[in-house]
Structure formats: C-alpha cells, structure tokens
Amino acid sequence: MNIFRRPDYQSEVTQFIGQLKDQKPALDAQQQAGRALLWDKDVDREIWAEYRAGRVAQKPYVYFENFRKPRP
Q1: C-alpha dihedral over 28, 30, 33, 37, to 10 degrees?
Q2: What pLDDT digit, counting tens, does each position of 5-20 carry?
Q3: Which sequence spans correspond to the domains of the chain?
C-alpha cells in the first residue's frame, strides 16, 4: 500500500453517467440499437470498388491553377 496514493478521481460528468446507467439499465441496449440504426451498415464491396476505380486523382495543390494576381 502506497501512503502517497490519492483516491481515484471521478469528474461530475463521470458520476452523472454512472448514476444514469444505474437508474436506466436498458440505456446501453438503446444506445447500441440507435447506433445500429444509423451507423452500422453492411458495405457492398463491389459498389465501393467501382467508386474507387472511377475516382480522378487530385492534383497536389488544387488552388494554384485558380490563383490570379489582383489587378491594380
């Protein structure tokens, strides 16, 4: 045991989230369902391969061509 060890710090936000999860045990399942609904999508690899094949390479400095000196 270290006599200089401080107790583990928990911010107010961390404490609030812990209390919220204690009050609503189904919260984790709801978060996962929401993520699955909006973000976790199946990827069609053939469509992505076509998309990547159709890309046009970007020039190293895209703004150089459009640069014009202001007229006095």
Answers
A1: -130
A2: 888 899 999 999 999 9
A3: 41-72
